[in-house]
Design a protein that fits this description.
Blueprint lengths: L12 H22 L4 H18 L14 E4 L5 H11 L39 H14 L6 E6 L6 H12 L5 E7 L2 E2 L2 E2 H5 L4 H7 L3 E6 L3 H8 L8 E6 L22 H10 L2
Parallel strand pairs: 1-2, 2-3, 3-7, 6-7
Antiparallel strand pairs: 4-5
């Protein structure tokens, strides 16, 4: 049975949904002002990131490098605008800095940089790298005897990269119960659907065959996400297949492949903000 409040910050699933709406409202003008970004994927992953940072991760914005913190790696690093927005709203840096996104010399680059942005655990962007890094981080936590957990969010198109499957096989072999991988399963990638490009199905069965526990959830339902992500201790790594909608929350972006990296106009942002009011 779903529990109504499992979040680290005390927020209920409805409050997490409200926070996610505010995150979306900040992402849109941030990308429009920059003239660059990946708005469709940012909006599809927003609920996952909000649930993790406000509901699940054991982290401290005042001490982002504390040794016993949980680790989070955004493997789909091109969706940095969503990550930066969540980090800012969680208190890792001032929200006003979002206005510098992708500007010259800004630390808020198009891909996250751990040496510049507090709360970022790994430099990502080249797809297929995040999960291998997460496997190494999870092993490192175990070697240090820490109870901390490691989380990694990947895109579904990204799972066409072979490095993910080497990492998945090794994580299952090592029985990394402190590792959780979440796929933002929106079914679209640059230029086409994942099914047209290189079909991933049956995705859940593949991870299960590699020795992972598997859960499938609605990736926009904060209660379901909390149920599978919060307070977990098991023998095997966990794979969460989170079914999402690219461009979630904005009707003219939802499920549209062109919004992988199309930049909304000022008028389109205004229309989108009305929908998200």
């Amino acid at each position: 049975m779903r529990q109504q409040n499992l979040s680290k910050t005390g927020l209920s699933p409805q409050q997490l949904a409200d926070e996610a709406r505010e995150v979306r409202r900040r992402i849109l003008p941030t990308i429009q002002a920059a003239g660059l970004g990946h708005v469709g994927g940012d909006l599809s992953v927003t609920d996952i990131l909000t649930t993790l940072f406000f509901g699940v991760l054991d982290i401290d914005p005042a001490d982002p490098a504390k040794p016993d913190r949980d680790r989070f790696i955004l493997s789909k690093g091109h969706c940095a605008a969503a990550l930066y927005t969540v980090l800012a709203r969680r208190g890792f840096f001032d929200e006003s800095e979002l206005a510098t996104f992708m500007r010259p010399l800004s630390r808020l680059n198009g891909h996250p940089n751990r040496r510049k942005v507090p709360g970022v655990e790994a430099n990502t962007g080249p797809l297929g790298h995040g999960l291998p890094i997460a496997v190494g981080a999870a092993i490192g936590l175990k070697l240090q005897g820490l109870k901390s957990r490691c989380f990694c969010v990947t895109g579904d198109g990204e799972l066409q990269e072979g490095s993910n499957w080497e990492a998945a096989m090794y994580a299952g072999h090592r029985k990394l119960g402190n590792l959780t991988a979440i796929v933002d399963r929106n079914g679209l990638q640059q230029g086409a659907t994942t099914a047209e490009t290189n079909d991933l199905t049956p995705l859940a069965d593949k991870f299960s065959a590699f020795g992972w526990d598997v859960e499938e959830v609605d990736g926009h339902d904060h209660g379901q996400l909390l149920d599978v992500l919060a307070h977990r201790r098991h023998e095997r790594p966990l794979f969460v297949l989170a079914r999402t909608v690219k461009g979630k929350g904005v009707s003219f972006m939802e499920g549209r492949v062109e919004w992988h990296h199309k930049v909304p106009s000022a008028a389109q942002v205004a229309d989108a903000l009305k929908e998200l009011a």
